[in-house]
Amino acid sequence: MSCWVPGCPALSMCRGLAALPITCLERAKDLKTRLGILLHKPELGHRTGTSSKLQLGSRQRDSSREVLEWRESFDQLLKSKSGVTAFHTFLKTEFSEENLDFWLACEDFKKTRSKTKLASKANRIFEEFVQSEAPREVNIDHETREITRKNLSGATSACFNEAQAKTRTLMEKDSYPRFLKSASYQDMTKQATIRGMSKRSHT
Q1: CA 20 to 30 Å from 85, out of 68, 74, 78, 195?
Q2: Residue of 168, 202, 165, 177 whose CA lies nearest to 78
């Protein structure tokens, strides 16, 4: 409401504001808007922090479930990236990580679409893992080794199938059971079980 009483402070203020340039008034409005945003930021930050905690909790629950699933089957272990990493770490302690590295190299090899790359990759994998006295020779029989050698002459995505299958069977029957009994995996399952119990007690 305007005031027309002579000497009224409100009247003087209105006249003073009217005398100000428009740019000054616009800056004042902009400053007010920014102050309002700053005042609301702590609340926004609190909500974001809560959301991050919920997401972290969800990831931990998924991870715990995944660890326990590794003991269900060798396939479950190989489907999990963290499972493959844990298994690889275990195989290093037994000096047999070349079996898993060969299996993973074959999986990557199957995804190759270029015929030129397919041939060069096949030769590289054979020289590193399959041929006799290879730097990281895998434990396969002579017959499978020779079949794989012949497959290189017309390399296809299936040329390592037999050797890969033999290596997988060896890991599943030999290394995998020892991994499940290892102190490292037992500790992981214990931690996963504790997290699962903690989750149920809070629901």
Answers
A1: 195
A2: 168
Count of beta carbons in the 10 Å neighbourhood of residue 41: 9
Closest C-alpha to 67, from 182, 202, 186: 186
pTM above 0.85, yes or no: no
pLDDT in tens, 62-90: 588 999 999 999 999 999 999 999 999 99
Distance CA 188, CA 64 (A): 8
Exposed e or buried b per residue across 134-172, where buried means at least 16 C-beta atoms within 10 angstroms of its C-beta: beeebebeeebbeebeebbeebeeebbebbbebbbebbe
Residue type, 56: L
Closest CA to 119 of 164, 156, 163: 156
Separation CA 79–CA 84 (nearest Å): 8
Q: What count of other Cβ atoms lies within 10 Å of the Cβ of residue 183? A: 8
Cα angle 135, 141, 147 (rounded to 5 degrees) comes to 90
Structure token pair of residue 43: 């609340």
Quote the tokens at residue 46. Answer: 């609190």
Higher pLDDT, 67 or 49: 67
